[in-house]
Amino acid sequence: MNQPQAQTQLRHGRVTSPASRGAVAIEQGLLGAWQVNEMEGGKNFPALTAGPFPTPYGSDSDSVTPPADGYILSGGKTDARDCVNFTDEEMSKKLNRPFSWPLLSVTPGQTLEVKWEYTAPHTTRGYRWLITKDGWDPKQRISRAQLEAQPFAEDFYTQVPYYSYPGELKAKVNHSVKLPATKKGRHVIVLMWIVANTGNAFYQAFDVDFK
Fold first, then answer.
1. How many domains, in total, are found in the chain?
2. Where are the compositionally biased (Polar residues) regions (predicted)?
3. Which of 2, 37, 59, 134 has the fewest CB atoms inside 10 Å of its own CB, making it the most exposed?
């Protein structure tokens, strides 16, 4: 019964490489691809409230309310997609067997290549990257207190207003980011694809191990 509905809901986009938490959840049979394509929440994160997108992009659509602490990695979704917010312990209970999120091996300061697959490539403002603080606690869900206060990278189109550049503000299939040079060990990275003409961003999360 659910299959036709799932087919009609393949929308928006997700990272296909490297493997995100959403991809792992698909692999574990907890989510469908369409659900990972729609990890959609307010684009002003890490702000707490809805409202105008910051200058100089204030002519973009206002942000809806950003995700609450504990629900950041799912873009604020609290349905089945909540599983991407789970700690190792929560996932172990869900799967009824020992589980830990697989770690992508990275090196400090390296360039990470990312590939997206879009089913609805919205007018794009850009991409924002955040990472957990040193000493963060993997036994707690990701909250603002667990993340560095400032993004470690942003990749924004500068053209404003967005509606004057309909052919230029395109979602990027391939893009790259320079990872922080001072991190060690296990961390969580949050990548936001920020849309210009809606109040949302699409959230993707990665578990990494800095060697």
1. 1
2. 1-10
3. 2
